[in-house]
Design goal:
By secondary structure, this protein is mostly helical. The protein has helices spanning 3-10, 24-27, 70-87, 90-105, 134-150, 156-163, 198-215, 218-234, 261-278, 281-295, 297-315; strands at 177-180, 183-186, 245-250, 256-258. Strand 3 (245-250) and strand 4 form a beta hairpin.
């Protein structure tokens, strides 16, 4: 990512960015195009898929080391599925199935089956190679369910069920769920530091909800309900009164993890989907408030100020677990 692009992400040069969402999969879970869309391009808010390398099987590779990144693979798959569903484009269907096949074939075996392991570190969150993610599990479930509908004889449905197994265990026991009392949060970075990343929890929730819609198991319903109730209670913690927080991680000096415009827009779209999915007014109200923040000049000014204050925190590493950041 170029320095200019980082600047545009942190200090928006335009405030027109919005993120589309779809309610079709609420009515037809695990089959209709996904709830949210991504920009595949290399612009400010894009995912760089149009310029990314692929392996010989057509599976997306990421980063300078050309790693297999389960979250990016799942999101690229869902993006290509949406194009295929809308246009019947065979190349998009083939791309989707190539990613789905990788997700089917690369689940870990061991004490907790069905995990996707990340073979590279994420130093900011104190994650060593081999870390796992509820977001990867949930988005992969959403991919595998759609692949099962396209090609029922290839074992994608069984892989979707295995991908849900890590939701049955908390982080201390190798799973992806953070639990404290009545609070349940699906962790994008499932380690002991539990940053509580908002968008990652919601993507994870959607996948488990889609699987429950298919399998109707009691443990799935109970866990979905617990997570939804937690999100509803915790929304004020992610709302600064003028913008949203990306996570609840705070720097060693108390600085908060304010979302960029890109992720603020994701949060708004996710709230709208949650409102339709679970018929809870609190999510629709959050979407309305957060949309207003983008339009208000004083909110934009406060975002600029918060971003400026975060620069020395990042430079000195105070926003990392190693530098003292904590939830």
């Amino acid at each position: 990512m170029t320095a200019l692009r980082r600047f545009a992400l942190g200090f928006p040069v335009t405030w027109s960015h919005r993120r589309a969402c779809s309610f079709d999969a609420v009515a037809d879970p695990g089959n209709a195009p996904y709830f949210i869309s991504w920009d595949p391009g290399s612009g400010v808010y894009g995912e760089d898929w149009t310029v990314a390398p692929f392996d010989e099987r057509g599976v997306l590779l990421s980063g300078p080391r050309k790693d297999y990144h389960p979250i990016r693979i799942a999101q690229f798959a869902l993006h290509r599925f949406g194009i295929w569903a809308a246009s019947g484009d065979i190349a998009s269907r083939d791309d989707f199935l190539a990613q789905a096949t990788w997700l089917r074939d690369n689940q870990a075996r061991g004490a907790v089956e069905g995990l996707y392991r990340f073979e590279f570190p994420w130093a900011k969150y104190g994650a060593a190679p081999g870390w796992s993610s509820a977001m990867a599990q949930g988005e992969s479930i959403s991919v595998l369910l759609r692949a099962q509908n396209l090609d029922p004889e290839k074992g994608y449905g069984d892989a979707a069920s295995r991908a849900a197994i890590p939701f049955r265990s908390d982080i201390a026991h190798g799973g992806v769920v953070w639990r404290s009392g009545d609070d349940v949060f699906f962790e994008e970075i499932a380690n002991e530091h539990a940053a509580h990343v908002l968008n990652g929890c919601i993507y994870a929730l959607w996948g488990l909800w889609e699987l429950w819609s298919r399998e109707r198991e009691a443990w799935q319903a109970a866990l979905v309900d617990e997570c939804v109730d937690t999100l509803a209670r915790w929304l004020p913690s992610f709302d600064t009164g003028w913008w949203t927080l990306y996570s609840l991680l705070q720097t060693s000096t108390g600085g908060r993890h304010v979302a960029t415009l890109k992720y603020h827009a994701f949060h708004i779209a996710q709230m709208r989907v949650l409102a339709r999915m679970f018929e809870k007014r609190v999510f629709e109200e959050a979407a309305a408030h957060w949309s207003e923040y983008i339009e208000r000049r004083e909110c934009r000014a406060r975002l600029f100020g918060a971003t400026l204050r975060s620069v020395p925190e990042r430079f000195l590493g105070r926003d990392t677990i190693a530098g003292g950041a904590r939830t």
